[in-house]
Design a protein that fits this description.
heterodimer; A: 5-stranded parallel sheet; 16 strands; B: alpha/beta; 7-stranded mixed sheet; 9 helices; binds flavin-adenine dinucleotide; binds iron/sulfur cluster; binds FE2/S2 (inorganic) cluster
Amino acid sequence: MAKREIIKKRVPVPERDPKERVKDFKEVKLGYTPQLAMEEAKRCLQCPHSPCVKACPVNVPIPQFIKLIEEGKFVEAARKIKEENILPSVCGRVCPQEIQCEGACVVGKVGDPVAIGALEAFAGDHEASVGYEKIVITEKRNKKVAIVGSGPAGIACAADLLKMGYEVTIFEALHEPGGVLVYGIPEFRLPNEIVERELSFLKEMGAKIELNFIVGKTKTVYELLEEFDAVFIGSGAGLPYMLNIEGLNLNGVYSANEFLTRVLFMGAYKFPETDTPVFTGKRLAVIGGGNTAMDVARTALRLKEVEEVMVIYRRSKEEMPARVEEVRHAEEEGVIFKTLTNPVRFVGENGWIKGIECVRMELGEPDESGRRKPIPVPGSEFIIEVDSVVMAIGQGPNPVVVDGVKEIKRGKKGEIIVDPETLMTDLPGVFAGGDVIRGGSTVIVAMGDGRKAARGIHEYLSRKQ
Amino acid sequence: MFRIVKKRELAENVDEFIIEAPLIAKKAKPGQFVIIRVNAKGERIPLTIADKDPEAGTITLMVQRVGKSTYHLSCFDEGNSIRDVVGPLGKPTHIEKWGHVVAVGGGLGLAPIHHIAQGVKEAGNELTVIMGFRRKELIFWEDRMELLADRVIVTTNDGSYGMKGLVTDALRNLLDSGTKVDMVICAGPVPMMKAVADLTRDYGVPTVASLNPIMVDGTGMCGACRVTVGGEVKFACVDGPEFDAHQVDFDELMNRLKMFREKEEEAFKEFQRKHCGCHGR
Ligand SMILES: Cc1cc2nc3c(=O)[nH]c(=O)nc-3n(C[C@H](O)[C@H](O)[C@H](O)COP(=O)(O)OP(=O)(O)OC[C@H]3O[C@@H](n4cnc5c(N)ncnc54)[C@H](O)[C@@H]3O)c2cc1C
Ligand SMILES: Cc1cc2nc3c(=O)[nH]c(=O)nc-3n(C[C@H](O)[C@H](O)[C@H](O)COP(=O)(O)OP(=O)(O)OC[C@H]3O[C@@H](n4cnc5c(N)ncnc54)[C@H](O)[C@@H]3O)c2cc1C
Ligand code: SF4
Ligand code: FES
């Protein structure tokens, strides 16, 4: 192919006006039209060494799918992606592309990187709009696998096992499936119907989904092993970390999990049409700088009662682990950033939070994470007045699933220890992947684990025969 | 969906439900609870497993009507189904052969007390049950407790039945009478549990309280159920719901139960206005 000229400017992805979009929970990004997608696809240089592919945790064949989009073969493009990533509509929207594929893109060295994420979402949405290809399962195996958790890790593992002909049952603790994709990530970033569509596709392929089923409580892993030939644990990292500071249990202090679950998953934003309440008052502060913090801040902005939302973060904006786009969207929508600020105490009055005592921070030497370490400035304490506060400072694996299962080893943060190749735990036949083996990670990494475990399970069961 | 096999009104504002939930029935132990959701718009509310029948595959819930969700549930009849029931949740009661155990319950606390009493008896303890009500019309399950316990003491605030006074009055009498009490287990309204804890602390009797903070998931995922016990923050749904009553910060618990009061009242008014024809109250 003749060498292409570099087009520095990216075709912008249409987005809703910030002033309008903060009034509802509908998706912020409108996505490419076919014309815009084809135009953006032209910017890809089709690099033979494809650094973007190497930077993708599951090595999606990026130049190949972009080429198909350029040629107007949108369905084929989606199927190309699905060879490596079964949820393009999801990942196109939520992957941290700027530190993965787009971060490595050659065009990015001189201009905007190719909009790989937006193109991926476009292809996925397009395929869904014309209807999925029916997957014919040719070979039926008389073996049953139990999947614990219906998040991205569980979904990916289930899909691959179904295609290989296994019988799959997914056990989910909550009353709706989808994991963080439905109870954490808000609809204005990832509409629930996308997740629903993927789940109904799984069901069409033959997956059974048992809701309201807590492995470790309703049945133990040992009991599942009696009924199933193998078990995959994809129970995520649902245990919220709390700031252990004075005033933690004042009314109006939430974990991000509680806040997002109440507002989004239980629908408190429609209260009293739905039964679950949330209390915010007028001024809400979020503590943290990750995707979760941005999601909480933007969710809060969309609540009728809330007038002002602040993000309190101890480092500077550059160090925030959130996707760059989320920070930009939050700023556009009016979230106030209080960086280099660290909470030291929640100040209460009659049992309710009234303020957060904070200390100013300075950046010192880089720490083990490579980011500059924040150091408190002595005597710089001050109080930020708030009516409610949400802690979004990370989470770890919930031990309930393997409570009392001695064979399964866990690390310092409670993460399940697995063989890195097969993802099998020390209890033969039990595999694990996703956030439960990593603490917090990403959707795509969790899905990658799910697929790897599916291969591990297949090998294990083939050997056992 | 979880079918209601049997429903009856036990007393004013208290219903008993027997619900088909075979997996939970098989696993349920004293002290554990379920979380239910009446329908797709419903809130997740915790209710104690008061009894179970593993053969029939059913669990018994005892529900005190206090607000929107509990009133809504009481509109459900035999043959209807509850959308979501999940469990069994929480740690089972730690039961030993202590000797003489006194179980103290009031109102919704009788659900845990009933199931715990079964376990306490099975472990070979002598059991006294003290159950408190405001007045005669509110009394229920005296017969069931009689079947289980060696001694049942009923108190009413107005003296319309049994002993006049509070459960703590009955408990104090018992402790003062020189009867040896090795363990007290209490469940019910927070002020009641606090009063029991204050009393038994003076007498040096180990005491366990079954706490009822606001919950959402019931699996340790949200932290809504935070309570302070011995100066440490605990999640009642996974670390409890039972804790050493002498270590619990009951005032904090009472305060946290008020967190959504205004909204709850709004929801209840809306519910009465729009929906509910079955209770004129
Ligand atoms: C608010 C928020 C925003 C995020 N934003 C992004 C983003 O933009 N991009 C990105 O890549 N990542 C993001 N992440 C991280 C990402 O969502 C997770 O890494 C990913 O979902 C992990 O997938 P998983 O399948 O391992 O676990 P989960 O998605 O957590 O799913 C686990 C499932 O298992 C269920 N479960 C747990 N215990 C049991 C049990 N004992 N029995 C039965 N079921 C059980 C849970 O209810 C849950 O449904 C975000 C996370 C949060 C919380
Ligand atoms: C472990 C546990 C076991 C329980 N067992 C029983 C039982 O066996 N029988 C029984 O009648 N009640 C029980 N409760 C209390 C019951 O859950 C509440 O009465 C119920 O949630 C009230 O809901 P509502 O909508 O009817 O009332 P609302 O008007 O919403 O609330 C009334 C009051 O109930 C409390 N409450 C509200 N929402 C919740 C919630 N999600 N979780 C916990 N408390 C809440 C608050 O103090 C509130 O002010 C238990 C609670 C816990 C935590
Ligand atoms: S690095 Fe960029 S330009 Fe090169 S193939 Fe990948 S997406 Fe295309
Ligand atoms: S109810 Fe959510 S952690 Fe206990």
